[in-house]
Amino acid sequence: MKLFMVQILFFVRNKEAKKNVLLLAKFLIFLAAIITLYSTVFHLLMVYEGKNYSLITGFYWTLTVMSTLGFGDITFSTDLGLLFTLLVLLSGVVLMLIMLPFTFIQFFYAPWLEAQSQARTPRSLPKTTRNHVILTSYDPLSRNLVKKLRKHDYQYCFVTSDQHQAMEIYDAGYHIVLSEVDAPDTYTKLRAEQAALIVATGDDLTNTNISFTVREVCETTPIASSADKEHSLDILNFSVNTHVFPFMKMLGITMAEKTLPFTEPHITGRFEQLCVAEVPIRDTALTNQTLAQANLRQKLNITVIGIWEKGKVLQPTAAHLLEKTNILIIAGSEEAITEANRLLSTADVTHFPEPTVLILGGGRVGEAAADFLNEKAIPYIVIEKRKGAFKNDNFHVYGDAADIEVLKEAGINQASSVLITTHDDAMNMYLAFYCRQLRPDIQIICRATEERTIPKLHRAGADLVDSSAVMGASTIMNILQPADVSFFSEEMNVFEVPTPEGFYGKSLTDLEVRKRTNCSLLAIKKGESFITNPNPETAFPKGGKLILAGSPESEKLFRQEFME
Q1: Does 549 reside within a domain?
Q2: pTM of this prediction?
Q3: Where are the alpha helices (DSSP H) in 376-453?
């Protein structure tokens, strides 16, 4: 009933809707007048032919002829009557079969559907809404962020001025508010002053507009914004409470880092004095060893908290056999990780084949990867279709990366790694498979736009897949949950909890934390003391906090086992 009343009010209050209804009413009055006129002429002609029919029969005959039903039970016998019948028939085709449906749909049914859609998409949030997240773009990054927000019980809403997109978002099961993203009144209705975060991940101009608009309403609510161009970083950082991230550049650097030999720490996250880093097995002597045989905790004072394998983070077990394509996720102090790099590395850095890295695609991600490799003095070649798109053509081959001759010209047979950086997931899948057929031994690192394509890219032949949506969502989530950090994927978190009372005076060996919850203890904090990778026999002191790592399910199990 409420929905019906909202739709009625739409036709009453909306000027355009009222105008449409008036036009439809005028047409219907005109049509009724034509039917009445034809019925009157019908009676006159029937009298002329010596026949008498009732008033109702006249309307009956007119409507059956105009609608082309033509039952034939009532007919004229004179030529004049037959000509009149033809006139009624032809005008009926135009008025009732063409103009009436068109007018009804254009001036009533379409506005009614719009009213129905608007009734389903709210224009504001309740006044009691607090600590929510406002998303101004509907893109893969934002959708991935919503998954994390839901897991952490954050309220959220998308905002858009496009009615069709609003319905698409609504039908996809997301919360949506229909309003202009660059109107100050919008953020008043969205309770921006009470929000935990506002996320702007559109183009640089739109993000700048949104940021200035939000600051008209509230000065303190944090804004997380993406930036594509270098100069946009300074413009978007006009407010001290704005976080600006060049996600495409970050993605390019992350992909390029994975091509480097294992000679320096690949630190991917920091948690106070604790560092989390990646160890590519291909450049170490750990290949074909189990974690138990590697014994990294005792030898290097680092903890293995996860193992990347074909796009999934696996829980480490003593019996896990390490393969060349695996990447270890390790945690420890920066000194311990640096020392681990030095001791584990078997890479020969005195010689790199020419070229070392092929970059397929010269967009923002490919350009960022090329700049990073250039700084590291690693030879590279970029394959790109656009002529004249780069400053130094000595490091670029222009052509189609799917053309074997172009790949050979770029050095596919000598390259150690391939970075596939186009924004088209289907193209990246094709190129990954193609390069794997040409070079079974080459390292293939691929970009994914949509998270759902990551398993497909691995199946196509990619060793590693990086997604700006996953990386960006984790980066933004870390603003909201600095003590619950997701560095890698939905499958691995680093989180902080108060030391449970049941831990006091006991050790990890006594409690069997890893066996019972699959969580790894990374550090113990108490006052100024910060112990990384504590000995399993170390007794837990009273008070303080623990830093652990594990999947969301493992974290939940830990809280159930020890904190409830």
Answers
A1: yes
A2: 0.71
A3: 404-410, 425-438
Amino acid at 348: D
pLDDT in tens, 425-446: 999 999 999 999 999 989 899 9
Measured CA to CA, the distance from residue 10 to residue 18 in angstroms comes to 9
Residue owning tokens 């082309």 = 68
**Cα 477 to Cα 480: distance, rounded to the nearest angstrom:** 5
Same domain (yes/no): 309, 363: no
- Per-residue pLDDT at 390: 62
Question: Would you place residue 350 in the very low, low, confident or very high pLDDT band (cuts 50, 70, 90)?
Answer: very low
Residue 145 and residue 79 share a domain: no
CA separation, residue 325 to residues 110, 338, 362 (Å): 56, 22, 26
CA 430, distance to chain mean position in Å, is: 22
pLDDT at 62: 94
CA distance 233 to 222: 16
CB neighbours of 124 closer than 8 A, spacing ≥ 6? 177, 179, 189, 190
Among residues 366, 299, 359, the alpha carbon closest in space to that of 330 is found at 299
The answer to whether residues 493 and 551 touch, using CB atoms and an 8 Å cutoff, is: yes
- Of 315, 344, 373, which residue sits at a domain end? 344
Q: Provide the domain limits for residue 150.
A: 133-245
pLDDT at 8: 56
Which of 475, 257, 471, 453 is closest to 372 using CA atoms? 257
Written as six digits, the tokens of 424 are: 């088209």
Task: Check whether residue 13 and residue 114 sit in a common domain.
Answer: yes
